[in-house]
Design a protein that fits this description.
three-stranded antiparallel β-sheet, 6 helices, about 45% helix, globular, about 150 residues, about 10% strand, 3 strands, mainly alpha
Length: about 150
């Protein structure tokens, strides 16, 4: 067994709680329930590459037990890589509405990440600053959810 030298409880590397096949079915069900195209054969090469990365991150988080698909929403458990006060929190990502899109209006075109954080904020009810404080593993999950909805 490899020694953990970071001191972080690496929930991403823990034993899988859900098998890959079930996790992929959860992803597909989420996409179907939200009208998100997930047939990579229908995508061009760039779209398929980006989509594959998003799907892989979703599946890994699901396998680790951090994702629960609840109809059209996702309950995501913040990983142990994020700081105290964040890790272990369960955040619900709801299907976006018009306010999610208008939340991005307060930022300039060259503030892409802030626009994404504003979109995530509107989908979750969390403050925009919340997303700048969590670990990259967690932020990428929220960013990926936003990307899936923005692709509709």
């Amino acid at each position: 067994m490899q020694e953990n030298k970071t001191g972080a409880d690496n929930s991403a590397a823990s034993l899988s709680k859900i098998d890959r096949e079930t996790a992929e079915k959860e992803f597909n069900t989420f996409c179907e329930n939200n009208g998100i195209e997930y047939d990579m054969a229908a995508m061009n090469e760039d779209e398929a590459d980006s989509f594959k990365d998003i799907k892989n991150r979703f599946v890994k988080a699901c396998m680790a037990g951090r994702v629960e698909v609840d109809g059209r929403s996702i309950k995501y458990t913040i990983s142990n890589f994020s700081p105290d006060g964040f890790k272990g929190n369960v955040v619900t990502i709801n299907r976006p509405a018009g306010q999610s899109f208008s939340a991005m209006d307060d930022f300039k075109d060259n503030q892409g990440q802030k626009k994404t954080m504003a979109f995530c904020s509107a989908m979750t009810g969390k403050d925009v600053k919340y997303f700048s404080k969590i670990d990259i593993i967690d932020y990428r999950f929220f960013s990926d959810a936003a990307t899936l909805f923005l692709s509709l």
